[in-house]
Design goal:
The structure is a homohexamer of 141-residue chains. The first copy, chain A, is α+β, with helices and mostly antiparallel strands and 141 residues long. Helices cover 26% and strands 31% of the residues of chain A. The first copy, chain A, has a five-stranded mixed sheet with strand order 3-1-2-4-5. The longest helix of chain A has 16 residues. The mean pLDDT of chain A is 97. Chains in contact: A-B, A-C, A-D, B-E, B-F, C-D, C-F, D-E, E-F. Strand 5 of chain A pairs antiparallel with strand 1 of chain C.
Amino acid sequence: MIYVSRKEHFNAAHKLYNPNWSREKNIEIFGPCANENWHGHNYDLIVTVSGDPDPETGFVVDLKKLSVLIKKEVLEELDHQNLNLDVPFMAGKMASTEVLAQEIWNILEPKISSITSHGSLFCIKLYETPRNYVEYYGPGV
Amino acid sequence: MIYVSRKEHFNAAHKLYNPNWSREKNIEIFGPCANENWHGHNYDLIVTVSGDPDPETGFVVDLKKLSVLIKKEVLEELDHQNLNLDVPFMAGKMASTEVLAQEIWNILEPKISSITSHGSLFCIKLYETPRNYVEYYGPGV
Amino acid sequence: MIYVSRKEHFNAAHKLYNPNWSREKNIEIFGPCANENWHGHNYDLIVTVSGDPDPETGFVVDLKKLSVLIKKEVLEELDHQNLNLDVPFMAGKMASTEVLAQEIWNILEPKISSITSHGSLFCIKLYETPRNYVEYYGPGV
Amino acid sequence: MIYVSRKEHFNAAHKLYNPNWSREKNIEIFGPCANENWHGHNYDLIVTVSGDPDPETGFVVDLKKLSVLIKKEVLEELDHQNLNLDVPFMAGKMASTEVLAQEIWNILEPKISSITSHGSLFCIKLYETPRNYVEYYGPGV
Amino acid sequence: MIYVSRKEHFNAAHKLYNPNWSREKNIEIFGPCANENWHGHNYDLIVTVSGDPDPETGFVVDLKKLSVLIKKEVLEELDHQNLNLDVPFMAGKMASTEVLAQEIWNILEPKISSITSHGSLFCIKLYETPRNYVEYYGPGV
Amino acid sequence: MIYVSRKEHFNAAHKLYNPNWSREKNIEIFGPCANENWHGHNYDLIVTVSGDPDPETGFVVDLKKLSVLIKKEVLEELDHQNLNLDVPFMAGKMASTEVLAQEIWNILEPKISSITSHGSLFCIKLYETPRNYVEYYGPGV
C-alpha cells in the first residue's frame, strides 16, 4: 500500500455562527470568528489516495487527474466563495474546518474510482491557516 | 544601516469592487474577486525598519515592541474583519493589496519613533496569498 | 473522528549530556550537541486532538482555547528557557526531542478535558529543526 | 513508541515512460512527463524510524547517524542523477515517486539496525514537488 | 511606486556543460552538475512589476493577467523540458540559473505593457532549489 | 548585474545582556531574552553575491564554493555554539541579530574574491526566527 497526496489551494469567506443562538452567545463562543461581516482564509487542501501502484504506470493514481478532479468537484464550489452563503453542500451546516473537511470527503470519495482502479480515498487534510488544520479519514475511522 | 523585519499575520474578508462601475463591469474586470458575497485571505505582513543599531542594546528596534505596535495599530483594525465594511481607514478605497499596503505604511510610519530613536519605517511587504504579494517603500520612492 | 491540530512555537537552549558519563564519552556520543556552553533551537510544537465535532459549534475543540492551554501549560515553562537548567519537568532527564515530546504529552493529556468534552489528546509533534522532528501518540501506542 | 524523522534533499532527472508501449501511448498516458529529453525535480525525502528511546541517550536513533546513512545509501545513488539511466536499483522499473519510495525503503530497512538497537524503519515520505508526495510504510501495511 | 509580485513554478532537466571544454574539465568545474545524463529541479519563479496603482482598480497589474502571461510566454517553453535541448531561447547558452533569469527577463520585459499601462518589469527572481536563487533587475542595473 | 544567493543554517545559544547594566535593567530592557541560563535559535543565513556572470561558466559565483566558504569561515565558528561565550569575533559585543549579521559581513567580504573574480559580497540576511530577521549591505549603505 502506498499513500499518494496532492495539495491544492482555495480562498473563501466565512463566519462561525450558530443560527439557533443569540448574537451575544455567538460572540461569546466564537469571538471574532462570529463577525457578521465575515472574515476569510487561504485554505490548503491535501487529498490522499491509498492503494497499490499499477505495474504499467507505477501510479496509484495519476496526480494530474486527481488535481483536475479536485478542481472540478471541490474548488469550483469553494474558491472565492462565501462558505455560508454560496456553497450548496455547506447550506445549514457550521462552516468550521472540521465540517468542511467531512463534506469534501463526501464529495470526493465516490469519485476516486472514476480516475483510478488502483486506489481509494484515504484522507482529507485541510489547513485553515498555516497553524490550524484538520484531518479526516472517513466515517467509522 | 541595518534593515530589521518582523512578520505578523491576520485574516480578513474583502471583495474587489469599484462602486462607480456596473456589476457586469466589476465581474468582467475582477472576475471571482468581485463576488458580492465576499471571499477572504490569510495575510502575512512584514514590516521593515532601517537604522543603525543602538550600541547599548545592539538593536535598531526591539522587535517585541515592533510586534506590539503592529498588533495595536494595524492587526486590531484588520484581523477577522471585512476590509470593505469594517475598517475605517479603508472606507471608500479599493480593497486591493496595493492600497492596503500603502494605508498600513501611512499608519505605522509616524509611530515608529515612539518605539525607537535609531530607526525609521523602510518597507511594508504584504502577502495576500503565498503566491501574490506587494512591497511599498513610502511616497516618492 | 476528526483530528484537529494547532501549531505553536518556542525557543530554548539545551545540551545533550548524560551526567553518568565522562565529558569525553558525552562528546564522543553527542558531538557538538554536548557543548557545555549550550546551543539552542526554535522549536515548532504541533498538538493534535481527536474526536467527533460538537454539532452546535462544528468544533472538536476550539483552537483558540487549545492555543491558550498550550501557552499556559507548556510554553510558559519552555520559551526562552534552558531545558536542562530552568524547566522543572525536565529535571534529571535527557533533553532530547523524544523525551521533551513525551513530557509535553504528560502535561497536556489530562488538561484537554478542561477545554472540550468532544476530544482527547492524540499526538504531540515536535520539530527541533525544520529537518529533525518526533511524534508521540501516548504510552502503549 | 516514538516516531523520529529526518528530512534530506536530492535532485534528479527522470521521465515516465513504459518501454512496452508506443511513444504515442506514453505521451497519451504521461503527458509532458514522458518528454524523451527528460525533466527533473528537487526531491525532499523524510525517513521515519520508530522505537522506544534509549534511556542513556534519550534517542530512538541519533539523527546525525541517520543522516549519514541516508546520504551514503540513498543520496549518493540518486543526487544529480538520471533515475532512468544512472541508478542501478531503478533499472527496468517505472521512475514514479511511488516506486522510488518503495525502493528507498528496501535499501534502508535492513540498514537501520546498524545505527540503532532501539528503532526500526517506519515510513518513507518522498516529495516530488511541494504539492505531490507519497508515503510508504513497508510491505503488508 | 508599488512592487507587485507573482510566484509561479516549473520543473526541468538540465546540465552545466561548456562545449568548448573537455569532459574532464567540465567535471572538474561543474562536478555532478555536469552529469551527461542530466539532472533536474523544481524551479520557483517570482516576477515583480513596479508602478503606481490604477485608481480605478487599485492594481499596478492584475496578477491573474500576469500569471497567464508568465504561463504562456515562459512556462510553456520551460515546464517539463530539458533546458539544454528543448528550449529555443537557451540554445547555445549555459543553462545556469543566472543566464536563465536574464533570458526570462528578455522575454517578459517587452510584454508587460500588453497587460498593464501602470507598471513595468522590475525583477526576475528564480529559485533553482530552496537554498540557491538569483535575482535580475535588467541590463545596466 | 545578477544577485546570487545561498542559504545556510546553524543553531546557537545566546542571551541579550549588557554587562554595563544591572541585572534588573537587563531584564527590564530585554525581557526573557536576558535569561542568564541562555536560550537559543535555529538561524537561517542567506549570503548574496552580486556581479556579472562569467561567460564560460554562466556563474557569478559557484554556489558550491560559496557554501563551502560559508561553512568554513562562519558556520564552524557559530554552529552549536554559545554566541556570548564561544565565538571569538562576538566577544565583548551584544549578541543581537543586527550585530551578528555585521560581523558575518566583516568575515566574508574579504574572502569572496578567493572564490570568484566576477562578484563581490552584496548582502547578509540573517533569520533569528521565521518571523524576525535582519539584512545588512555593508558599511556606508
